[in-house]
Protein 1
Amino acid sequence: MTMIHLYARVLRLLGSQKSLGWVLALANVALAAAGLAEPVLFGRIIDALASVQGTGGALDWAKLTPLVAAWVGFGLFLIVCGALVALYADKLAHKRRQVVLSDYFEHVLQLPLSFHGATHSGRLIKVMLAGTDTLWWLWLGFFREHLAAIVSIAVLLPLSLYLNWRLGLLLIGLSLLFLLLTTFVLHKTEAMQKSVERYYSDLAERASDTLGNVALVQSFTRVEDEVRELRLVVERLLGAQMPVLSWWAVVSTITKASTTLTMLAILILGLYLFARGQTTIGGIVMFMTFAGMLIQRRGSSIRSS
C-alpha cells in the first residue's frame, strides 16, 4: 500500500474532527508557501548587499527595506502558524486516538465467542495499542510536517528550474538519486520488519499467558521454564531485528551523505556559473538553502514510510 492510499484511509477516520483537519491542511499549505518565500527573499537581500559592496555605493533602502520586511514577516508567520499547527494537530491526534481505541474495544467485545476462541487476547491487546499509536503518529506527523513537506517538494522543484535551470537540474538530479537509493533500502527492510512484528506478537501472547496464570506457574514451579522460553522468543526477535537496524543505519548514512554532497555540488556549480555571469551570490545562497530544505523535507517523507 502506498503512503497516499494509507493517508487516504487514515484521514477518513477523523470523524467529527474533519473540519479541523481541513483547517490544518490549509495552514500547512500556507506554511509551505512561506517557507519557500524565505530563501528567495534572502537571496535577493544578499544580491542587494553584494552589489553595494562591489560598487562601493550607498545602500538602496527603498529597494532593501521591503525585502527585509517581507522576510521578517514570513519568518514570524512561520513561527506563529507553525506553533498553532503543532498544538492543534497534537490535540486532534490525541482525541481521535482515544475514540478509535474505544470503538475497537467495543467492536472486539461484540465479536462471536468462536472468534475469541481462535484469537489470543494478547494479540488483540497488541493490535489495539499498537494500532491506535500508529494512527496517532500518522495523524500527528501528517498535519505537523508531512503535508507541508509534500507541498514544498511539489512546488520547490519546478520553482528551482524557473529561477536557474542549471542549478535546478542539479538539485533535482541529486534528489532523485538519493531518493532512489533510500527507497531501495526501505523496500529491503519491509519484509524483514513484518517478521519482527510477528515475533512481537508471539512475545505479547506468551507474556500474557504466563502473567494470566501466574498462580499455576508458581505452584508447578515453572517460573524458570517460562522465563527461559520467553528469553528464546526475545533472542529470535533480536535476531530478526538486527538486520533491519543495519539497513536503517544505511538509510541514516545516505541521508547524511546526501546533505554534504548536495550542498558541495550546488556550491561548486554555483561558483562556476558565477564566474560565467550565469548566477549571482544571492542565487548560490538561495539554492543552497533550497537544498537544505529539500533534504529536510525528504527526510520527513522518508520517516513517514
Note: The chain has a mean pLDDT of 85.
Protein 2
Amino acid sequence: MKVTDEGIKYRKLQKASDEVFEDYRQIISAEQKRYVGVYASSRMTENNIINTDLSTERLLERILDRNNLNNAFKKVKANKGAGGVDGMGVDELLQYLKDNKGSLIQSIRDGKYRPNPVRRVEIPKEEKGKVRKLGIPTVVDRVIQQAITQVLTPIFEKQFSDNSYGFRPNRSAHDAMDKCLENADGGYKYVVDMDLEKYFDTVNQSKLIEVLSRTIKDGRVIALIHKFLRAGAVERHTFKETGVGVPQGGPLSPLLSNIMLNELDKELEKTRP
C-alpha cells in the first residue's frame, strides 16, 4: 500500500459512551485514481447487450444536489446512532455542516475527500458465543453514504430480482413469508434457508467495483465508493486496513451487498422449474 505524508495523522478518539480512546495513527490508503474515467464509455454487459443509458454519467452532481443532501442529513438525524471515531454525535452534525458544507462538497467534487475509518464494535449474535462485527462510520461520512444510497437505489432497484426482499425499500421479512406461502399454494414443497457466513466481511472489493461499473458510468462516484471501502477500521485502539469486505453498519453497505448478490439471485432463478 502506498501511503502519502498527508495520510498519516494522529487523532484522539472518543466513544459516544464517553469512553476515551488512546491516540492512534490513522493511515489512509492512497486514492485509487485509476477508476476515474475508466468506465465513462459504454461497455459490453455479460449478456452482450450494450448499455447505452447515459443517465449514470453525471451521478456525482445528483448526489451533491442540495435537496438530496438535505434529505440525507434528515435520514441520518432520524436514525440517531452512536458516533464514529471522531466522537461527533448526530446532535452536533447540523452545526458542523453549516460551518463546513462548502469545503466538504468542494473536496468531494475535487476528488480529495477522505472518509474516516469506521469504528469497529462487536455485538452478540443469536448463536451463543458468536458476534457480529459492525463498522460505525462518522456521522459526516454517514450523510455522504446516505446521499449516495438515495441516488443509486432507484437505479439498481430496476435490476434486482423480484424474489429478493432483504435491505430493500418497501419490502420486509413478512413479504418474503407471504411469497413463500404463495409458492406453496402453487405446488412447491420446500423452502431452503441459507446463510452466507461472514458475507459482509469477505466481499471481494475488486469484483464489487467491477459490478458497480457495469451500471455507474461516473468514475468519480466509483472512486468515492472505493474510498469508503478502503477507509479502514479502528478496533481496540488499533487501525486496520480493509482491503476485503464491506463494513456492515453504514447506510451504503446494504445496497452494495444487494448489488453484489444480484447475480446469485438471477442464477438461482434459472434453477427454478
Note: Strands lie at 8-11, 24-27, 118-124, 131-136, 233-235, 238-240.
Protein 3
Amino acid sequence: MSRGRRAPELAAQQQAEIDRAMMARALREARKGRPSPNPHVGAVIARGERVISVGHHPFAGGPHAEVVALGAAGKRARGATLYVTLEPCNHHGRTPPCTDAVIASGVARVVTGCADPAVKVPGGRARLRRAGIEVVSNVREPEARAQVADFTKFTLRELPYVTLKAAVTLDGRIAARSGDSKWISSVQARRYAHRMRAESDAVLVGAGTVQHDDPQLTVRMVRGPQPLRVVLDPSLRTPLKSQIARVSARNRTLIFHAKGASERRKQALLARGVELVEVRSDRHGRLVLRSVLRELWRRNVVRLLVEGGSRVHGAFLESGLADHLAVVVAARVLADPGAVPLASGAPKRRLAQAFSLVRPSIRRIGPDVLIEGEIAR
C-alpha cells in the first residue's frame, strides 16, 4: 500500500478514535441530572481532542444537552464537532427543536450515539445533512442505547423500566431464616444502593419486607431526590407505625392492594397520608404486576427499583417484567438451606431454565462485588 493511500486511512482511524473517546465523555455527562420522564442525554463540543464545552439534560422541561453545551461554547462552537448521545430532536415540545440550535451554531460535524427510539418527528439527522453539516451516526451505539433503555420501555411499552436490586451472601441468601439481613453488604455497597434510589423514580418492596425490616426506603447516604415509596400489600398488612407509613411532602408512599382489603385499614392508612390504589389480583391473591406497573407508568415512573424480598423478586422474574439485575455479593456464607434466597419462583428442573444476564459487568465496591446486567429475554 502506498504512503499516499495510508495517510487518509490513518487520519480516518485517528478521527474514529477521537469520536469514540468524546462519545464516552458525553455518555458520562449524560448520567448527571434528573430528566425523568425524559431520557438522559449528554453532549460534548470539541475541536479535535480539545473539549470546548459539555452539557446534559438537567430536568424535564429544561434545556436539552446539546443546547446547554452550545450555550457554554458560544462562538467557539463554529467549525467544531458536536457529540451527543441521542439524535437531536426535530420537533416542538416543551422546548424548540434542537436541530434549530445546532444549525444556527455553525458546528461542522455532529456525531450521535443512537437514534431517538420514540422520535415524534423523524429526520433530525437528515435535516442537519441538508444544512451542510457532516453527520456521523451510531458511535458507541450499544452503550448509548443502554443509557436510554428506561426511556425506550416507558415510551414504547408504556411500562416502567424495572431493576431488581439485592445484597446476597456467597451462597445467594438475602437474609437469615429469621429475616435478619442487616447488614449483609459493606457501607460502601449501601452507599451505592442509596445512589441507585436517588437515580430512580420509585422504589418498591413487598409487605413482608416492611413487616420484617421496617425500611425507610429513602435516600440518606448520598445527595439526591427522594423516590416514591411503593409497597405491594394485597391485604393491607402494612403496620400503621412503620416508617413507610410516615408520609411527608418529600417522602410519599403508595400502597397497592387487592379488592376486599379491610376498609378500616384503608381509612387508617389514608389518614396518615398514604396513597392507596386497588389493582387486580390472581386466583392466589397475588397482585397482577402488569397492572401495578401500568399504574406507575401513569404516574410518570420511568425507572423502578425493586428491593425485594425473595417472593417479589421471583414474581418479577417469572412475569418477564424485570429488565435489569444488580446484585452485591458479600464475602460471607450462611450455609443454611432455610435462609432466604435471592428469588423464589417456579420450580426449575434444568439449568437451561435459569434467568441469565446479557453481557454482565463485574466490579468491586469496597470488600464486595457488584454483578449487574440486562436480563435476557
Note: Residues 29 and 226 are 22 Å apart (CA to CA).
Protein 4
Amino acid sequence: MGMSEFYGTADASEAVATIRRALELGITFLDTADMYGRGANEELVGQAIRDRRDQVVLATKFGNVRNDDGTRGVRGDAEYVRQACDASLRRLGVDYVDLYYQHRVDFTVPIEETVGAMAELVRAGKVRYLGLSEASPETIRRAHAVHPISALQTEYSLWTRDPEDGPLPACRELGIGFVAYSPLGRGFLTGQIRSPEDLEEDDFRRNNPRFQGENFRRNLDLVARVEEIAREKGCTPAQLALAWVLARGDDIVPIPGTKRRRYLEDNAGAVDVELTPEELARLEAAFPKGATAGERYADMSTIDR
C-alpha cells in the first residue's frame, strides 16, 4: 500500500527493487489491493513480478470503492465482484490470483451473495483461494458455509490485539489462516517516529487517532518499553514486534509493509529472533492488551464488528 500512496512520497523504482529483493530473501507472499493508488499498486506489483510469477503467492482485494469526487464506498454485489476481479487481473498482468479478499464487508449485500460470486471466480480459474478482511466472527462463519475461506486479514500487532476477542478464535475453529496487517503498528513500533512532524504532510497517519495529541505521547511511552527489551535482546524494535506476531502461532502470517530495501532486510531478520516464554511474558507486561491509546481509524463505522 505504502509503495503507491498513504505513507508519504512514493518511489516506484525503489518499490520494484524492494519487491524483487523480498523474493530473493524468500518472502514470497505479496499483498495488494485495487484501491491502493486506485489501481496503480497492482500495476506496480505486476511489473515487479512479470518474469517471476511462479515465485509468488499473490493476493489482492476488492470492495473499497474510490470515486472521482474523493468519496468512498463499499460494494460486494455479485456484478461488482466479477468486474473488480477482471480489472485486477488486467492491471496485475496475470491469469489468476492466489488469494482474493473482500477488502471490507458490504453491509447492504448478504455475505452469501458476495462469497457466492467469489466462488464462481474460483470455478472459472481466476482465483485459487478466498479471503475476507476485517470481518466479524458471524460473517466469517456465514461466508465459510458458502465456500471455504482460506484467510482472514485484519490488523494485529502488539498495539492492536482486538482480533483475539473473536475473529482469531473463529478462524482457528474453522481452520482459516490469519494474515496480520500493520504488524508494526503502522510504523509506530519501529521507534522511528518520535513526533507527528516526522510524517510527511500527506501521510494519512497524521489523521489517525493514535498519532495525535495525548494519544501519541502515551503510545510513545509504550514503544520505549519495546525499545528497551529489543536492546537487551540485541535486535531492532521492528524485529521484536514482528517476532511477537510470529510467536502467536504458525497460522498467523504478518505482512509488514515497507517501501525500502533497508527496512525490508531489517524486517526479514525477525525470523531469526526467538522469544522465550519469559521474554514473551515481559513484553506482555510492558505492553499489555488494550494499552494503546486511541482508535485504529478516525471512523470505525466501516469495520464489521
Note: The two ends are 23 Å apart (CA to CA).
